[in-house]
């Protein structure tokens, strides 16, 4: 039977006779119902956050984050199962995701203790004076976070951890498809001392929750992770406020002829199939230097066959479902379209409901939809490139600019890639998605405005810098 969960208004569970239904993508079972918010609840959440009384000390913020991290670690398995049930991601992935979210809380806790103020002595030029200028960071009055379905816990942790570390009250609108782990994280934070006014979690129709939050002039920051279409809509409508937009990607893995073949095959599999290919930084195009394409293809297909898809709740499964059946249908259609343009499916391609087999496709034309736009699933299109210049030209030809991976042992080629790829990250001999939770992360072009996240950068966005100066000597 479906369990009942609640949206939260300033720490209090919202009662309502309307519910958001949450389904398990693997078996289509109704697993939970979450109380739905109205536009009135949204206004009340804003007012409660703005009415926050005394601010938490740095130590209090540290303690809430650190205790919550320990509580999350203690519940690692049940959180992983919860994500698996709402997102269809396999347990191997969701256990990993909980570990990442613990890191986010840990780094946020550590940052809460740090003071990053600066001091500028003013007697440093003929125009100077005997004064000192100091900076300090002040929390925002109110931030809003809107998150997607693909890392339902970690994406949320990346918004809430930095907000709490900064002392900024935040209203979260998680994905309606995967709200359960977000709500459970909020409950852990409340249980571990977070004042209710610091966090509301609202679920409901876009026109009752997300849109009013984006439009409200009292909201000082909208931090959004999701699709390009919604991100650009927010950019058009949000008005005079800070925006952090982490949008879609179409990341390449570029494999040059001098690459370590075993490493290249491993990275291609991990990059294309982990998290059911539903990472903004998943490998969406594998660009292989023509001279090694045949050898690479043979080894890749062999290894990709070991990425078995099936019941996400089984530890033997390496690739769970995508988020829902319509998404799996769209991906199958993208494969069919490529085949109609001359591509060949070498492995996979089968689909049962939302479960799509990891699919390797070769001879994919450069203008195929799965090359020019983001396909959010376990598809691995192989394309031949002449050399690094050709790979760079092909990579830079799409509107996206999130991340990239290059497999080479040639330092000159590696540095060329770092200099010339137009994207937020270049990882040499790693997948595009490689990062740690506190390093700067984010894209350019249609993938984002170049304003980074990652715990340290996100805290900067969640604060404003105040400068003050004093006479000195
Ligand atoms: P999405 O459809 O854009 O939804 C993201 C969030 O926006 C959801 O909470 C959604 O609410 C909400 N939303 C929908 N319409 C809105 C509106 N008019 N105003 C404000 N919010 C609105 O994205 P998704 O399909 O969940 O996620 C997949 C996408 O996220 C992919 O493109 C992926 O690349 C991208 N992504 C990017 C990053 C990054 O860091 N660059 C990371 C992860 C994912 P509902 O659930 O109620 O529709």
Compact summary:
This protein is an alpha/beta fold.
CATH class category of the largest domain: Alpha Beta
Looking at the overall shape, the CATH architecture of the largest domain is 3-Layer(aba) Sandwich
Mean pLDDT: 97
Query: Uncertain spans, ≥5 residues at pLDDT below 50?
Result: none
The CATH topology of the largest domain: Aldehyde Dehydrogenase, Chain A, domain 1
Give the helix/strand class: alpha/beta
How many domain regions? Answer: 2
What can be said about the biggest beta sheet?
7 strands, mixed
Biggest sheet, spatial arrangement of strands: 15-18-19-14-13-20-21
Distance between the termini: 73 Å
**Rg, nearest Å:** 23 Å
Write a structural description.
Helix 3 crosses helix 4 (91-113) and helix 9 (261-273) crosses helix 10 (293-304). The protein has 15 helices and 22 strands. It has two domains: 3-247 and 449-469, 3-Layer(aba) Sandwich (Aldehyde Dehydrogenase, Chain A, domain 1), CATH 3.40.605.10; 251-436, Aldehyde Dehydrogenase, Chain A, domain 2 (3-Layer(aba) Sandwich). With 473 residues, it is an alpha/beta fold. Strands 15-18-19-14-13-20-21 form a seven-stranded mixed sheet, with helices on both faces. A five-stranded parallel sheet has the order 10-9-8-11-12, with helices on both faces. The protein has helices at residues 39-50, 58-74, 76-87, 91-113, 154-166, 180-191, 210-215, 228-237, 261-273, 293-304, 325-340, 369-372, 388-396, 411-420, 455-461; strands at residues 3-5, 8-9, 12-13, 19-23, 30-35, 119-121, 131-139, 143-146, 170-173, 199-201, 221-225, 242-246, 251-255, 283-289, 344-347, 351-352, 355-356, 359-362, 379-385, 405-407, 427-428, 463-471. NADP nicotinamide-adenine-dinucleotide phosphate binds next to helix 7 and helix 8.
């Amino acid at each position: 039977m479906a369990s009942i969960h609640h949206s939260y208004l300033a720490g209090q569970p919202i009662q309502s006779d309307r519910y958001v239904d949450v389904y398990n993508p693997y078996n289509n079972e109704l697993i939970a119902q979450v109380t739905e918010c109205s536009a009135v609840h949204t206004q009340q959440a804003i007012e409660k956050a703005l009415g926050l009384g005394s601010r938490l000390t740095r130590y209090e913020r540290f303690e809430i984050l650190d205790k919550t991290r320990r509580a999350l670690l203690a519940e690692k398995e049940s959180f992983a199962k919860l994500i698996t049930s709402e997102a269809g991601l396999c347990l191997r992935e969701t256990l990993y995701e909980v570990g990442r979210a613990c890191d986010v809380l840990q780094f946020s806790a550590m940052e809460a203790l740090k003071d990053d103020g600066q001091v500028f002595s003013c007697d440093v030029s003929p125009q100077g004076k005997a004064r000192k200028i100091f900076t300090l960071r002040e929390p925002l009055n109110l931030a809003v976070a809107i998150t997607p379905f693909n890392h339902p816990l970690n994406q949320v942790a990346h918004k809430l951890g930095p907000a709490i570390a900064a002392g900024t009250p935040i209203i979260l609108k998680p994905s309606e498809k995967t709200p359960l782990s977000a709500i459970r994280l909020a409950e852990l934070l409340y249980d571990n001392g977070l004042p209710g006014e610091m966090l509301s979690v609202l679920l409901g129709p876009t026109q009752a929750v997300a849109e009013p939050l984006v439009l409200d002039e009292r909201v000082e920051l909208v931090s959004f992770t999701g699709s390009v279409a919604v991100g650009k809509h927010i950019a058009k409508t949000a008005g005079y406020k800070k925006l952090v937009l982490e949008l879609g990607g179409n990341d390449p893995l570029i494999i040059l002829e001098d690459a370590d073949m075993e490493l290249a095959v491993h990275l291609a599999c991990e990059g294309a199939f982990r998290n059911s290919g539903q990472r903004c930084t998943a490998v969406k195009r594998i660009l292989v230097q023509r001279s090694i394409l045949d050898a690479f293809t043979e080894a890749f297909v062999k290894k990709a066959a070991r990425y078995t898809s099936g019941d996400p709740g089984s530890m033997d499964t390496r690739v769970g479902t995508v988020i829902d059946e319509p998404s799996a249908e769209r991906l199958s259609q993208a494969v069919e379209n490529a085949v109609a343009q001359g591509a060949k499916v070498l492995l996979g391609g089968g689909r049962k409901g939302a479960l799509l087999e990891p699919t390797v496709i070769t001879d994919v034309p450069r203008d195929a939809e799965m090359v020019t736009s983001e396909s959010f699933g376990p598809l691995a299109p192989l394309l031949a490139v002449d050399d690094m210049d050709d790979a760079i030209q092909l990579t830079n030809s799409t509107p996206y600019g999130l991340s990239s991976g290059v497999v080479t042992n040639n330092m000159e080629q590696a540095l060329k890639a770092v200099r010339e790829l137009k994207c937020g990250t270049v990882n040499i001999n790693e997948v595009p998605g490689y990062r740690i939770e506190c390093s700067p992360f984010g894209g350019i072009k249609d993938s984002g405005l170049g304003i980074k996240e990652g715990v340290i950068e996100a805290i900067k966005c969640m604060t404003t810098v105040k400068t003050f100066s004093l006479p000195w000597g």
